[in-house]
Amino acid sequence: MIDIKKTYKNYVGGKYVRSESGKTYTKELKNEYYELPLTSKKDIRDAVTSSKDGYKKWSSTTPYLRMQILYRLSEMIEGNKESYVDLLMDHGVTKQKANKDIDESIQNIVWFAGLADKWEQLAGNLNPVSEEYFNISHQNPIGVVFSLSGSNVSLNELLMSILPSLTVGCSVISYSEENSILALKFAEDINNSDFPSGSLNILSGKFEKILDDVSKHVEINLVALHKELDNDGLKVIEENASESVKRVFSQPSTEGLSSILPYLETKTVWHPKGT
Amino acid sequence: MNDWEYSESIESAEIVSIKKKYTNYIGGKFLEPKSKKYLNTISPSTENLLAKVPLSNQQDVNSAVNAARIGFETWSKISPSQRSRYLFKIARLIQERSREFAVLESLDGGKPIKESRDFDLPQVAANFFYFAGWADKLDLSWSTKTLKPYGVVGQIIPWNFPLLMLAWKIAPALATGNTVVLKPAESTPLTALLFAEICEQAGLPAGVVNIVTGDGSTGSLIVNHKDINKIAFTGSTQVGKLIQKSLAGREVGLTLELGGKAANIVYEDAAIDQAVEGVVNGIFFNQGHVCCAGSRLLLQESIHDQFISKLEKRMQSLRVGNPLDKNTDIGAINSKEQLDKITNLVNEGLEDGGELFQTQCDLPGNGFWFRPTLFTNVQPSYSIAREEIFGPVLTTLTFRTPEEAVEIANNTEYGLSAGVWTEKGSKILWTADRLDAGVVWANTFNKFDPSSPFGGYKESGFGREGGRHGLLSYLKASS
């Protein structure tokens, strides 16, 4: 029975914004009926502008603070667990599975929170060059990441499409189609947390409408696709990406250290030793 | 009684015997091309014909990829420690024949013998030694057992460091359990073909290393081959983009090491004489045919005049000429095509309003040569300040504050390397942190080591070569 109509907005630059196009699309769940923003090309451009600003702030936040902000997020999800479970159940997920999904989500946020101040020790190292030089390889976050979330209705899967890049200091434009109600609800927790504005933008819509714009935008440094696209879609994205040597990862690993490697640029610094 | 005799300053070309005609190396056999077509390779310092090499076609590339597929079956079954020992053996054989390789490199490519002998060849051997030791420690390298080789890797390499680029490609690919089809550059195929003999001498199983020569069309056949699992390319950004586009929608791995336009930042508190040496090495090493060359000199305004005067004086002492002369600093430009490109860009720089300084020296009558060149009074919008020239041409820009230096340095689509010169440690670290570049040389430039990862940010490509990070270019995550 449809009784309440709820309208969500995109979450960009720390604010809830309507799509510039004014367009929405509807999604009907068991108990509720939602209106969601249909993201346009202009919305993507605004999100990128915000993400560039967010990247500056987030990547210069100390690892110690990034860790605490991520950990705080896990506390907030835990506090709102019931409402997430309800929403998942409204999507048709069983109560048991919904509980498990939120528990796993919390566990993964805590895992990545603890990684925020350790990944540099795991992914970088001193290089034993054969002359009298100090030589070290360490990493920078790659910059602005566009991440398409998967099609399963799952907070954990949504998080796994965001956390690896966010943890290392990238700013993220998270885009959801099937998962959009959950994603925009999650935006409320992000808004109440201490993430700097623009570090995580959350948008919804039909990916095919913006696929071309996203893959052509030269200020998006990396596109991560956590959903299997038909081969033509992937081909268009990768062809467009080649124009600016943009990195594209289709269904990247979300496990362990491998999960963060796509989002890192390795920088090697040399200095002579001497008197 | 003193009986000093000077040894001949010209290295003898006799040490290497060059065949009139070469074959491909496929499946452990030296095979004539099915295309029946050949390319000429000349010496850029004399324009004399050195040899004919195969212009490989689709059938040749098919044979090579098939051989590599069969080779992969063999190579996968060999124990990691055995793979390691093959690589150690190759390294040793290269050391033993390094003089031969060095002379051939200078003849075919035009680089000074002191560089091919003292830089390229020692680095080639070092790369095989370094990666030999990784072959049986891959599970330790990134603390995971889920990384697996791609399979058959197509490798396309440039003409600036022909054998060294081969080593950067083949050593890590083999250490990680892949097999390769490698195509050397059209203008410098000979040392790769000599390397095929090393593979044979080392008893490397058939099909593990396959070498096919040709031009861009051959490279394109490798990229578009249906049975290739990964492409590794070093070359221009323009071709890199084409390769990335060709691979769109295909499940083929890719790493790209592309162009650069490195800023070499000299702060007013730098050790000036050392910085002058570093700047000279940064741009004139290997005739400036270096993707990471320090081609944009960024000088703090207060030291501009003093620095330029010292730099011009130092440049005047560079010796340009016969690559086989052990005293030569700057050899031949690699090809007529490259010489034309450099000439055109320098002319554009003059038309734009840049002020030109070139050293005064006699150039040989035949061959391709370009005088060491310095531009001052340059605006950041000039093409000489934006485009990769890939020649002995240095462009000067000025800045007032460290913030401005970083902004100018990063104001390019490239991001391969950068240099910083200052005696103040905190300023080095501050600057290095802010530069979008894969390699930052502080108070040095153009240093390389097999253990040190190399590769770019932004449009300079993706993936790293060398070091522990270089292994990741040849391993993919699989559960």
Structure explained in plain terms:
The complex is a heterodimer of chains A (275) and B (479). Chain A is of the alpha/beta class. Helix content of chain A is 43%, strand content 24%. Chain A has a single domain (4-272), classed as Aldehyde Dehydrogenase, Chain A, domain 1. In chain A, the strands form four sheets. Chain A has a five-stranded parallel sheet with strand order 10-9-8-11-12, sandwiched between helices. In chain A, helix 2 (63-79) runs antiparallel to helix 4 (95-115) and helix 9 (207-216) runs parallel beside helix 10 (231-242). Chain B has 479 residues and is of the alpha/beta class. Chain B has two domains: 13-258 and 458-477, Aldehyde Dehydrogenase, Chain A, domain 1 (3-Layer(aba) Sandwich), CATH 3.40.605; 263-442, Aldehyde Dehydrogenase, Chain A, domain 2 (3-Layer(aba) Sandwich), CATH 3.40.309. Chain B has helices at 58-77, 80-96, 98-109, 113-132, 138-141, 162-175, 190-201, 216-223, 237-246, 272-284, 304-316, 336-352, 383-386, 402-410, 425-434, 467-471, and strands at 24-26, 29-31, 38-42, 49-54, 147-149, 152-156, 179-183, 209-211, 230-234, 253-257, 263-266, 296-300, 355-358, 373-376, 393-399, 417-421, 439-442, 461-462, 475-477. In chain B, the strands form five sheets. In chain B, strands 13-14-15-12-11-16-17 form a seven-stranded mixed sheet, sandwiched between helices. A six-stranded mixed sheet of chain B has the order 8-7-6-9-10-18, sandwiched between helices. In chain B, strands 1-2 form a two-stranded antiparallel sheet. In chain B, strand 9, helix 9 (237-246) and strand 10 form a beta-alpha-beta unit. The chains are: A alpha/beta (275), B alpha/beta (479). At the A-B interface, strand 7, helix 10 and strand 13 of A face helix 9, strand 17, strand 18 and helix 16 of B.
